[in-house]
Amino acid sequence: MADMSAFFTDNTLSLALREKTKSIHDRTDHKIMSMGIFSSLDGYRIFLLSQYVFLRDMTNIYENEMLRNLLPDLETRNRFPWVEADMRDLGLAAPMAHRGNVIPFNPSVAVGWLYVAEGSKLGANILSKMAMSLGLTESFGARHLAPAPEGRGLSWKTFKAAIDSADLDRAMCVSAAEEAFARFSSCLDQMAALNSEEIFSASQNERVSL
Question: Which fold, 13-203?
Answer without folding.
Answer: Heme Oxygenase; Chain A (1.20.910)
